[in-house]
Amino acid sequence: AAALLFATLAGYDRTLVLGTALMGCGLLLASTQSLLTVPLASNLRLGWISALDIGRQAITVTLMLALVVAGAELLPFFAVTIVAGLAALAATVVLVRRTVPLTPAFDVREWWLLLRDSLPYAAATALYVAYFRVAILLMSLLTEELETGYFATSFRILEMLLPVPALLIGSVFPILARAARDDRDRLRYASQRIFEVALIAGVGLVLVIELAAPTIVQVVAGDAGERSVEVLRLQAPALAATFVAIACGYPLLSLRRHRALLFASLVPLVATVALCFALIPPSGATGAAIATTVAEFALAAANVLLLIRHGEGVRLTFGVLGPLALATLLGLTAFVLPLHDLVRAAAGSALFVAALAAMRQIPPELFDAARRRQEPAA
User: Fold this and answer.
1) Residue 242 has pLDDT above 60, yes or no
2) DSSP H or E segment with residue 38
3) What is the CA radius of gyration of the chain?
């Protein structure tokens, strides 16, 4: 309802207003489906969660391509999220129907006990989701459509990757929650290792995007999106900050520091609005990319500081930063190779991982987990 009101007041045309309504319905379906995956996560049935998410994305892409081939107008594209959301929801219901009741129970006292904890975190999550999209809204109001399109291309590419940190790090949340209750030493150890892995994975993913940006944009937007390459390269570092923010956010969540998370989520929202108003009018899509990147790093810094302050004994160390910077510089040397973008990205990634391995900065737990997966079942 709020989104529809904004779309109307902002003067969007009829197609965009109706599209906002359709996307809102799709979002409600996706939220309900995500809620029903909680039993799967708590039982560490992570393969099913990944399969559901990949299936939903595959349906979305397939329908989008079909509409493009059919030469459809804009409005049907907004309805794609409803179809994909319904399919994912139906599959999730089949998986959890014997685990949790699928009808709501009306117990005010129980509701209050849940809402008391969940409302601050829900607000924090909503702010986190909203702030990245605020830049798109402000772009539509503060600059011309072409600049908005350049930024939207970069944003859509990152939007496909933004769930990755939550999916990877969120898989260990049940372990963190148990450790926060029963074993603080384990919580401290796990928080440090997750922080290190998040840094390595985030920087590695950014390195790939920086090296392969021209090809990525070409696939998504064709020749018309060439200007988006620069925007994507400015915005890509936000992914590394996202990994760090989520790596510190889940330990805080396991300790029930919901209000701290809410405060942290206000930081990027305020930063995005202030920087967008300052940078979009003179710099267009480039200014918006800088604004969102700075805001994401502000969120990461806030979460790190809050975890150190409210982590009840969690003390992060930053020894990995030096070797990580050196490995990144080595990976970036692939820019000078006279090769295709994708080959350069593969070469840069290999150099990055090899350098970290040579400096013994890859957590040994990753190797142990890989070996266990390769061992035949007893």
Assistant:
1) yes
2) helix 38-42
3) 22
pLDDT level of residue 172 (50, 70, 90 thresholds): confident
Residue 370 has pLDDT above 70, yes or no: no
Band (156; pLDDT cuts 50, 70, 90)? confident
pLDDT value at residue 368: 67
Q: Which residue has the tokens 């039993």?
A: 39
> Over 70: is that where the pLDDT of 174 sits?
yes
181: confidence class by pLDDT, cuts 50, 70, 90: confident
Cα of first residue to Cα of last residue in the chain, in angstroms, is: 55
Q: Of the candidates 295, 307, 337, which has an alpha carbon nearest to the alpha carbon of residue 247? A: 307
Longest dimension (CA), the chain: 66
Phi, psi of 204 (to 5 degrees): -60, -40
Amino acid making up residue 260? A
DSSP assignments along 282-346, one per residue: HHTHHHHHHHHHHHHHHHHHHHHHHHHHHSTT-----TTHHHHHHHHHHHHGGGGSSS-HHHHHH
Q: What are the tokens at 279?
A: 């940078």
Amino acid at 172: V
Output the pLDDT for position 141.
Answer: 84
Amino acid occupying residue 286: T
CA distance 245 to 125: 12
Other beta carbons less than 10 A from residue 249's beta carbon: 30
50-62 confidence digits (pLDDT tens): 889 889 888 988 9
Distance CA 271, CA 280 (A): 13
What is the chain's mean pLDDT, rounded? Answer: 87
Distance CA(210)–CA(340), nearest Å, equals 13
Rounded to 5°, the CA angle 85-69-27 comes to: 15
Can you say how many angstroms the Cα of residue 198 is from the centroid of all Cα atoms in its chain? 12
Which residues are CB-contacts of 5 (< 8 A; sequence separation ≥ 6)?
A: none
Element (H, E) at 190: helix 184-221
Q: State the sign of the Cα–Cα–Cα–Cα dihedral 313, 319, 321, 327.
A: negative
Q: Over 80: is that where the pLDDT of 183 sits?
A: yes
Residue type, 93: V
